[in-house]
Design brief:
About 10% of the residues lie in helices and about 35% in strands. By secondary structure, the protein is mainly beta. It has two domains: about 160 residues, Deoxyuridine 5'-Triphosphate Nucleotidohydrolase, Chain A (Distorted Sandwich), CATH 2.70.40; about 190 residues, Deoxyuridine 5'-Triphosphate Nucleotidohydrolase, Chain A (Distorted Sandwich). The strands form eight sheets. Strands 1, 3, 4, 10, 12 and 16 form a six-stranded antiparallel sheet that branches. The chain has a five-stranded antiparallel sheet with strand order 6-5-8-14-11. Strand 3 and strand 4 form a beta hairpin.
Length: about 375
């Protein structure tokens, strides 16, 4: 039987802060730290520098990966460990690093487990750099029917499902592919609240911003401001990418730049992976967090693999930004599909913070994408 990190059977502990019964918001950095201090987040080892972000916590891989036959959800009466025992093909030691191959499915116990109170639930998402490498990953908890969602009151371990899609990747114990947010209540802004916030803060630089169901983001295929380039297409059969190596790889070894076409279009080839950018520049004020929501599949035969979370201060002038464009990880489905300049590809929804974070994105922490335009992950030298 495999050994996994499990949350101990503890009695409910009191947080170092209080949450009113009717409070609603995303927990900021200092409250995440307080959850760890009170035993509601249970790391196997102390947190490392920059692991706590303004409105999220990076999750670290444990020391073993299990190659499994297929992706799965445990269901309401089963643990992830039990399903791994049924489906595993072999074990891979990550303590000194190991390569995970493309189009294989791996399950890795995480170094962080949870003992959530009834008032706090959690949601996970890939980190920005993970999505830009086309590494498909999501978090699984015991006795659940959904990926990346951890119910209020959950006590137990967490696992990462990992499937590299384009590049083989070198991972090790402590590597960080996913991040998790903690929320109380229902902090999502409705259309009227979002419009009022945009009027105060100008969330997006478009004069005719579409704010129905979130800030609409469209694709930029003009080539303006980027020397005529609109994106990158990933190469096949490349070398391995070390997930923890910054600025270690030449762009040309892994990516083909894409020039703008006169008609402002781009044909997506099936199965290929593209890095593109939004036409709009957005910002996230200090009292709010944002998240990209899944694109409506009825509008086109392509998929945008959003990294997901936008921390307070992203693109915000007070945190060193002047609006930042969203980088989009795009893959066509079974058929070629034409994207047009200005075509809407996603929406950015905003949520209230329970309190402003102590540190905004872009200030005094490792914020790789503040003020970004069209930009590859931090692994590549521009």
């Amino acid at each position: 039987m495999m050994q996994v990190l499990k949350a101990p059977n503890i009695q409910e502990k009191t947080l170092a802060f209080s949450i009113a019964p009717d409070a609603s918001g995303i927990l900021p950095d200092r409250m995440i730290a307080a959850m760890a201090d009170s035993g509601q987040i249970l790391p196997a080892y102390p947190f490392v520098e920059s692991q706590i972000q303004p409105a999220s916590l990076d999750l670290r891989l444990g020391d073993v990966a299990f190659r499994v036959r297929a992706s799965f959800l445990p269901g309401p009466d089963t643990t992830v460990a039990e399903r791994i025992d049924e489906l595993k093909l072999h074990e891979i030691d990550l303590s000194n690093g190991a390569v995970l191959e493309t189009n294989c499915v791996y399950i890795v116990p995480l170094l962080e487990s949870l003992a959530l109170p009834p008032s706090i639930l959690a949601a996970a998402n890939p980190k920005s750099s993970t999505g830009r490498l086309d590494v498909f990953t999501r978090v699984i908890a015991d006795a659940t029917r959904r990926f990346d969602m951890i119910a209020a009151g959950y006590h137990g371990p967490l696992y990462a499902e990992i499937s590299p899609k384009t590049f083989p990747v070198l991972l090790r114990e402590g590597s960080r592919l996913s991040q998790i947010r903690f929320r109380a209540g229902a902090p999502l802004l409705g259309d009227a609240e979002l419009a009022a916030l945009h009027k105060r803060e100008r969330l997006v630089d478009a004069d005719d911003a579409d704010l129905t169901g979130g800030v609409a983001l469209s694709i930029d295929l003009s080539g303006e401001g980027s020397d005529g380039f609109v994106g990158y297409r990933a190469k096949r059969h490349t070398a391995v990418v070390d997930i923890d190596r910054r600025a270690g790889y030449a762009v040309g070894e892994f990516w083909e730049p894409i020039r703008a076409r006169p008609d402002g279009s781009l044909i997506l080839d099936p199965g290929e992976f593209y890095i593109l950018a939004s036409k709009e520049a957005v910002q996230v004020p200090p009292d709010y967090a944002a998240e990209m929501v899944p694109f409506d599949p009825l509008v086109g035969e392509f998929r945008v693999h959003y990294a997901g979370f936008f921390d307070p201060g992203f693109g915000y002038a007070g945190a060193g930004g002047r609006g930042s464009r969203a980088v989009l990880e795009v893959r066509s489905r079974e058929v070629p599909f034409i994207l047009e300049h200005g075509q809407i590809v996603g929406r950015l929804v905003y949520e209230k913070m329970l309190a402003p974070p102590d540190t905004l994105y872009g200030t005094r922490i490792a914020s790789n994408y503040q003020g970004q335009g069209l930009k590859l992950s931090k692994h590549f030298r521009l």
